[in-house]
Amino acid sequence: MVVKSATKKKLMDMLVPEEYAHLLADDRKWDDVKILTALEISATCKIDSETAGKIHGLIVSAAQGAGKDTSGDGSGSTTVVRRRSRRKRVKVEQILDDYDVEGKMLGFQNKYIRDNNPVYAALKKADESTGGPVFLTERVLCDLTEAALVRGKEKLTKKQADSIIDESRIAFMKARIDPYEAAGITTAQSIGEPGTQMTMRTFHYAGVATVNVTQGLPRIIEVVDARKEPNTPTMTIRMVEDKKFDEAEVRKLAASIEVTMTRHIADIETDVAQRRLVLVLRRSALKQKNMTGIEIAEKLSTAIRLYVEPDAEKRPKTLTIIPGRKKEEDKDVIPSYTELLQLEDKIRDLRLKGIPGIVRANVQIEESTGEYYLSTIGSNLARVSDIEIIDRSRTYTNNITEIFEYLGIEAARQAIVNELSLTLDGAGLEVDVRHLLMVADVMTSEGAVRAIGRHGVSGSKHSILARAAFEVTVNHLLQAGIIGEKDRLTGVAENIIVGQPVALGTGSVELYYIPDED
After folding, report:
1. d(CA 124, CA 196)
2. Is 186 strand, coil or helix?
3. Which residues are registered as beta bridge partners of 363?
4. Residue in 320, 327, 363, 364 with CA at minimum distance from that of residue 343
5. From the CB of residue 152, how many other CB atoms can be counted at a distance below 10 Å?
6. Are the CB atoms for 428 and 194 separated by under 8 Å?
7. d(CA 195, CA 187)
8. N or C: which end of the chain has fewer CB within 10 A?
9. Which residue, 149, 162, 43, 131, is CA-closest to 446?
10. What is the pLDDT of residues 217-264, one digit of tens each?
11. SS3 of 137, please?
């Protein structure tokens, strides 16, 4: 634990209790503390939501009042720090399409009713004619049609169609959950048991042996822990209709979004005797990245604000940089050895091209359709979505936090379901999607992606004993004792701990037998 003493002192000056100030200042500067939400404060300090709200109010008040009068003498004078202005990236406004309910439903049907498919027609007629307690949805009818076609059934008799519909209704009714069913426990068992059979697996991109994607149990843990960034963030970038079969265009896009640093396209030589840096450009790398020597010289000059001297005007092979030389005329500058080394370190990792976070972009092809697309190592959904030639509706990242920040909580919920389902399917394990939906609902029910753990769902339970039964028992009990928190014993875990019947099922009612007096 590295507690920032200045941050802790500032919090204590705002009348935040010392124990909470100590926890909030753990490896955080004031700028990090003032943007914390009440929920994050509650999780960090292990306190109830009411106390966390009061502390959040103190922090917000102090943050809003900062800079109004910082002189300390009441004069109202302030210290102004002028920063170098940066060029702002132009934000691309994307127009969202209206949600078309009818079009969505027709999307399920079109591939079957476009040619008046007899299997779909027979099933639809059987569903409407037999009636019953429930009518099957279009999605179910289309799935049944697809299953019949896979089995080689091009037509169905009335008896066969009625039989399929009847069996489907029976299965549909069995799958419905009863009121007051312990759905959470069933979900935990249904995911936990197959999870014990998962192994530490990795997935390799075709033709790229050095690229590994986390799969199996480690990926499941990443998802339910709501990690801000997965160990191996990846993206699948699809192109618009008129570009998806153009290999040259896809390769050009790959070169433009892949991060290119100075060390990727040049060998950096340090000339200690003459106190200068010499960049020897690699022609093959320049061609691959679709860059020129003059372009690199301009980008370096803009980034480090120094004069970059090329050895030729049109096709330079080397670039020379002297620390402190800002103009071509400044030839008498003699930098120190320390300045030379500092400049070398800065230039080596300087980003010249590409989108931050996209380490590598590999061109892939779907053999069935011939479509080209990009698989990336690294992710930056917001910046990639600004590119005009990509199909945003089919571009996907496995970074759930990025999806939440860019597309919202509903998209993040669906991403959690997708990632859990893909990981389990990859391991050959079958889990009902409704269990995955429940996990996603619990993680996103409060408008943000929360971890299932002591820093998220389990750590924010109202019951003290339920929190203590999960992890860090002593801390929860001690904290509850300090603030005088009460446990109403309304859940399962807390009643089991104190040894009394759980208020569920038969334990939710009291039955008395009063015999007749005569």
Report:
1. 42
2. helix
3. 374
4. 320
5. 6
6. no
7. 12
8. C
9. 43
10. 888 889 998 888 888 899 999 998 888 888 889 998 988 898 888 888
11. coil
* 18-22, 54-58, 339-343, 395-399, range with greatest mean pLDDT: 395-399
For the packed helices 217-224 and 409-426, what is the interaxial angle rounded to 10 degrees?
160
Residue 397 tokens read as 């990242």
pTM: 0.65
Nearest CA among 360, 184, 156, 351 for reference residue 255: 360
The structure tokens listed for 499 are: 């040894």
Per DSSP, helices labelled H in 388-429 are: 400-407, 409-426
Q: How far apart are CA 503 and CA 495, in angstroms?
A: 8
Statement: residue 486 has pLDDT above 80 = yes
φ, ψ of residue 278 to 5 degrees: the values are: -120, 120
Please report which helix (H) or strand (E) contains residue 30, including its range.
helix 30-33
Tokens 């009643």 -> residue: 495
* 3-class DSSP assignment, residue 146: helix
Task: Compute the residue count for the chain.
Answer: 518
Q: Give bridge partners of residue 261 from the DSSP assignment.
A: 351
Q: Which residue in 331, 352, 351, 329 sits closest to 275, CA to CA?
A: 331
Q: Which region, left, alpha or beta, applies to residue 226 given φ > 0 means left and ψ of -120 to 50 means alpha? A: left
Q: Residue 353 pairs with which residues in a beta bridge?
A: 260
The side-by-side arrangement of strands in the sheet containing 276-281 is: 266-271, 276-281, 318-321, 308-310
Residue 387 and residue 391: Cα distance in Å, rounded?
9
